[in-house]
Amino acid sequence: MVVPSQLLGDVRTLITSARETVSRGVNAALVLLYWKVGERIRLDVLKEKRAGYGDRIVSALATQLEADFGRSFAERNLRRMIQFSEVFPDSQIVSALTTQLNWTHFVDLLPLNKPHQRDFYAEMCRVERWSTRTLREKINGMLYER
Fold first, then answer.
1. CA gap 46, 49 in Å, rounded
2. How big is the CA angle at 55 (ends 67 and 112), to the nearest 5 degrees?
């Protein structure tokens, strides 16, 4: 039996839309999780500014979390999460941005030293719906500086 093309198209659109909604929700939850993990470590462990102690704690924590949850929680990634919470200290701003930016966007924004520059690129990603590839191209092309 041949399915009417209108019905098939409508059902495909519904499925695609639902998948995109789920994907955005999962992404937003992961980015917020990474921010909260970074914030928790930064405030509870590194606040004391005991570099050697803090480094050992982060390393040990990463070892345990990586065993339980995989490479996403390796030491390098935990350090990125800490940096993320330092660079974006306002959880409300992070929460608002997570609906439109993914973790890779934030990772690409972290090395930018100037807060206005970082805010400019984050806002452009949000408004123009830049992919991470486009973001990298704009940063490398020094769009902010022009």
1. 5
2. 95
3-class DSSP assignment, residue 46: helix
Q: For tokens 């974006």, what's the residue?
A: 88
Model pLDDT for residues 73-126, shown as the tens digit of each residue: 999 999 999 999 999 999 898 999 998 899 999 999 999 999 999 999 999 999
Cβ-count burial of 116 within 10 angstroms (0-12 exposed, 13-18 middle, 19+ buried)?
A: exposed
Q: Are 31 and 103 in contact (CB under 8 A)?
A: yes
Q: What is the pLDDT of residues 30-51, one digit of tens each?
A: 999 999 999 999 988 867 566 6
| Of 68, 25, 69, 65, the residue nearest 41 (C-alpha) | 65
First to last CA, the chain: 60
